[in-house]
Amino acid sequence: MLKYKIKPFCNSENGTLKEVLLCTPASYNVLGSEVPAVGFAHDFIAELAIEQHHLLKLKLENFGCKVHDVNNDLKDELWDRLVNRIFVRDVGAVYGDKLLMGVSGNEIRQADFSYTQSALVDWFDADHTYFVPSCVSLEFGDFLIVSPECVLINTGHRTNNKEELALFLFGLGVEEVGFVSLPRTMESLHLDVVCNILGGNLFLAAPFLKFTTVSVYRKSNESKKYELNTIDEFVGRHGYSIYWLPDKNYLIDYTNFINLDKNTVLVNEEVVPFYQRQFTDMNFIGVQVNHLQHGAGSIRCMTMPFVRGSE
């Protein structure tokens, strides 16, 4: 139990990261036929995952982040079997000075959402906490802050009901919401395995996103009509240049990073050479997460920013 209430603030994907949430992996291995049953990609050895979790935590702390581990507040037999609990990004997100609580679109995640959210409601004042409407599902791996007034969301798989989501977000101060619909595959399970914002003005994207339509809803449009954009048009309007990633089936190494500030990024150490060659004005900190990725998620999936700088 925290001895103080966290004051959330986050209006970007690249403000200086000051406080962040992680969750220690469960102590169970996931092997053989269990792997697809829980939505993982490969065999998952708890001891290796816990070692890499500690490395991830250490890298964040060395940068100067205060790291909260929700596992410290949650102890019972069921909780220890919820192997997807490490993917805290999906459970919620801070937007502005509000903590938004998600609803899972997959029954296997509903329990770990419930447990983690039960801890978070004790860590934040009630007037900073908002639950998405019960008529929608929203996993925040599908949620990207494009600007303080605009977000990009993937719907059609784990996240659903565009109109109600837009209305909910408009009520919280969002002015514009772009919606895409990704293929329902492991390789595009959430938005953050196919795209991400890098540094101050780059939008990294999987090649197939050039064929994706963005449905743009605006708070100012009372008719509830939406316009259609290419992904280039949408992000370009908000000051981003698009960078098309390599043509690979699975891009999680290249997209599922976390910006520590506008010039520093925490990435899978195996792709540090690629990033250093392509983006010479950025600082890339590598961390070994290859075994954690057997759970079908990576660095962004396992981190929920609580506080970022407004710069």
From TrEMBL:
Q: What Gene3D superfamilies does the entry give?
A: L-arginine/glycine Amidinotransferase, Chain A
Concerning Pfam families, the annotation shows: ADI (PF02274)
Question: What keywords are assigned to this protein?
Answer: Plasmid
Question: Could you tell me what this protein is called?
Answer: Arginine deiminase
Q: What organism is the protein native to?
A: Bacillus cereus
